Amino acid sequence: MTIHRVTISNFMGIEALELKLSPEGVWIEGGNAKGKTSVLKAVRAALAGQGISDGAIRKGATAAEIVVNLDDLTIRRIID
């Protein structure tokens, strides 16, 4: 299965983010504390239910939502 799109809202330090992923691969880069690891943790939380802790919901929000679109499947995880 291939991940085609990841949508994240209010997860860790990410307020809102939508990533459309190329089937050839993905490259995420940026400085320290810019959210690279948060994106990976969000995908892990959505697909495996792992890494969901007290700090998973962005400060000031009441819930986080992660949507992962695969080939013929959409996974939506809400953390509240």
**What's the gyration radius in Å?**
12 Å
Give helix % range. Answer: 10-25%
Distance between the termini: 28 Å
Shape: globular
| Beta-strand residue percentage | 25-35%
Protein architecture, described:
- With 80 residues, the protein is an alpha+beta fold.
- The protein has one helix at 36-48; strands at 5-11, 14-20, 64-69, 74-79.
- A 4-stranded antiparallel β-sheet has the order 2-1-3-4, covered by helices on one side.
- Strand 3 and strand 4 (74-79) form a beta hairpin.
- It is globular and about 35 Å long.
- It starts with a strand and ends with a strand.
- The mean pLDDT is 93.
List the main descriptive attributes of the protein structure presented here.
1 helix, 4-stranded antiparallel sheet, 16% helix, 80 residues, alpha+beta, globular
Break the fold down into its secondary structure elements and pairings.
Elements: E1 5-11, E2 14-20, H1 36-48, E3 64-69, E4 74-79
Antiparallel strand pairs: 1-2, 1-3, 3-4
Question: Would you kindly provide a brief summary of this structure?
Answer:
With 80 residues, this protein is α+β, with helices and mostly antiparallel strands. 16% of the residues lie in helices and 32% in strands. The protein is built from one helix and four strands, in the order E-E-H-E-E.
